[in-house]
Amino acid sequence: MSATGGNQGVTIGGIIFLLNNLSLHDFDPEDDFDGTVPNLPYRLENIAATHILPLEQILLSRLNASGLIRAIYVNFGPMGYYELNPNTRPITQPAAFEAQLRDLFQAGTTSNPDNDEVIWRMITNLSSIVSTLPANNYELGCLHGSDSHSHGSINIGDYIISASDERTFVFVVGQIDTQIQAYIDDFVKVSDYDLVANHCLSRIISGMETKWNLS
């Protein structure tokens, strides 16, 4: 059922995030992983450092507290696609997040030990995600830096103001590769400058919270 947020009587479709193959922090292709997860192509601490702040930003947002984050998907590149439960408590300690990711990449799923609620689960591929999106979804490729002037992108502030509340917005943050482009409905310009993922998300989240009068 759609929430109404801070707009009385207005049905709100909500938001889905896809963090797509984010550029890894301090990645050194010559720096072999220590082997605690077989066949992992990147160092686990680099993967954790790249994703901990963006996921914390989403999970702690007023959007999520209001029940307007419908789903969170992460494409970890060679490790595949995963879904994170928006109702989970964010892990803010890097070592704890690394341990959670280690369990995830080994088992394909992680659960809350207190109640067995699924925290993360593996998704087969991008098509599997797209097939489960609501009929009213609208997929937005989020551009910044030099990419922001391509694809005829619309300024995100202008887009948010004019967009229908009843749509479910799917914000794709990270790489906009050819596979993703096939599903994009519009491109939005988040900034003329290069942004790390959590700064990009901050602008998106702030704009949507303002649109829906969340304070």
Automatic annotation (TrEMBL):
Note the Pfam families from the entry. Answer: EMG1 (PF03587)
Keyword Signal belongs to the record:
no
Q: GO terms for molecular function, please?
A: methyltransferase activity; rRNA binding
Record keywords, A-Z: Methyltransferase, Ribosome biogenesis, RNA-binding, rRNA processing, rRNA-binding, S-adenosyl-L-methionine, Transferase
| Record-level GO BP terms | methylation; rRNA processing
UniProt KW S-adenosyl-L-methionine keyword = yes
What family does this chain come from, according to its entry? Belongs to the class IV-like SAM-binding methyltransferase superfamily. RNA methyltransferase NEP1 family.
Name of this chain's protein: Uncharacterized protein
- Native organism: Flemingia macrophylla
